[in-house]
Design goal:
6 helices, globular, mainly alpha, Four Helix Bundle (Hemerythrin (Met), subunit A)
């Protein structure tokens, strides 16, 4: 159980760093650039940010056997609805709300329930954490590229 507690703690620390950088970028990118996309058919800035929020509502909690908020709805529909939000203030609010839910779910996960393969992920905490963290880092890299493309230097790079 000690190893599951340690892994959960390290997982949360990594996701917190990703969260902090994504929110810093979301704040640094001007509102008029939220509709920017590198090419047609690729997610815009706001769509990427809301995709990440959707993952914080759904995938983060599921990675430790928890559920999205009761009002989240059907995942595919809820994710699509989130990605329609484009106003910077709404996007920032959803980022914070979704992160609070994900963080609380990960912090409160019972380490004993994370040993071996657990529901609903049907995989170990280590595998779930690596998959989710890897995906979150990929979106962070995508947002760094988007920010630089619209003339924004990531705040931690100055």
């Amino acid at each position: 159980m000690k190893s599951a507690t340690h892994l959960r703690s390290e997982y949360l620390a990594d996701l917190t760093m990703v969260h902090d950088k994504i929110v810093a970028l979301a704040n640094a990118i001007p509102a008029d650039k939220y509709a920017w996309r590198p090419v047609p058919g690729v997610r815009s800035v706001s769509e990427v940010l809301m995709h990440v929020a959707g993952e914080w509502y759904l995938i983060g909690p599921m990675s430790v056997g928890a559920k999205p908020p009761a009002d989240f709805g059907v995942p595919r529909e809820a994710m699509a609805k989130l990605e329609q939000l484009t106003a910077k203030d709404e996007v920032l609010a959803q980022l914070e709300k979704s992160w609070a839910h994900s963080r609380a779910a990960i912090e409160s996960a019972d380490p004993a329930a994370l040993l071996g393969r657990y529901e609903p992920a049907k995989m170990s905490l280590a595998r779930a954490a690596l998959r989710v963290a890897g995906d979150q880092h990929e979106h962070l890299g995508q947002l760094i590229t988007y920010a630089r493309a619209v003339g924004v230097t990531p705040p931690w790079s100055k």
